[in-house]
């Protein structure tokens, strides 16, 4: 009886997960795609307008463009990660993987590569912020637009290398337990999973976060000393705001991915823990960790709006421009409609006069034909 109640409880939670997760995934997908699309439009608009070059020093212009390039790369990696979300959602809703072995490998590869590229980009952004704030002269010589663009591309090399084992060793397998349909991707052995999981955690999470922590620690120490020394308060205030925004991006990424990595390590250490799937003890934790990891793709645009005044101004400018386009289009349609109505009105007023003239003309012709009809 206890075994029956246990299985029924597991099944109930499993069905609840399969109902809630697709709804949350759809919300995350819509918010993430729309938010990052707006971010990319704004950053590309800055690039076209050359924001930061007019009325500012060349040094701050180059640094600003470098930051925008890294933010653009971050949004691109998040969009790629979001593109894999529907496959996971469908597998959870259908309780099996319907897309075949190749897509199983590809989705795993892109998931690993995109998450790694995001944290590597954040580490690159932290180093760039450190050079910009603490060593501005050196930053001007190092952080050219071309070099930052190359760095944003090169971070994908180690990210793709970390994803290669997913591409090679993953496969669609039959789960050992009937209710563990979520765990459809497995390596050959538990030892391989343990080695890969620890290596991925160290290289794609812990090491970048240590680099980021050291960089921002030195930045805040420098700003604190500069504030007490009374140097250029406006410049220091601007650098402090930009640094706070960058630090919040890193903190949000850490908080979103920490439950997932923590759960993964717990699984790898204890093979029989049953932390995956839908067991009553670990099911909610698994769902929470997955939700936090996918939410990392949504939170960056929200932070841009909340913390960056420059981004808010660009967003208002974008909405205002689109509103003006809508008003112009509506006004053009109204003018066209009025012209059509006026032409129809003129035709309707002139038409009876024309008909009367034609009738009189025909009547006159008929009279003339009877008067001048030749006799026989």
TrEMBL record:
Name the principal localization, coarsely classed. Answer: membrane
Topologically, how does it sit relative to the membrane?
Multi-pass membrane protein
Where does it localize?
A: Membrane
- Gene Ontology CC, one term: plasma membrane
InterPro entries attached to this UniProt entry: GPCR_Rhodpsn, GPCR_Rhodpsn_7TM
Give the top-rank taxon of the lineage listed in the UniProt record for this protein: Eukaryota
Provide the G-protein coupled receptors family 1 profile domain boundaries. 35-304
* Keyword annotations from UniProtKB, A to Z: G-protein coupled receptor, Membrane, Receptor, Transducer, Transmembrane, Transmembrane helix
MF GO annotations: G protein-coupled receptor activity
State the coiled-coil residue ranges: none
TM stretches of this protein: 20-48, 69-94, 106-127, 148-169, 195-216, 247-268, 288-307
Per the UniProt record, one Pfam family is 7tm_1
**Stored PANTHER family:** G-PROTEIN COUPLED RECEPTORS FAMILY 1 PROFILE DOMAIN-CONTAINING PROTEIN (PTHR45695:SF22), LEUCOKININ RECEPTOR-RELATED (PTHR45695)
Q: What is this protein called?
A: G-protein coupled receptors family 1 profile domain-containing protein
Species of the source: Amphilophus citrinellus (Midas cichlid)
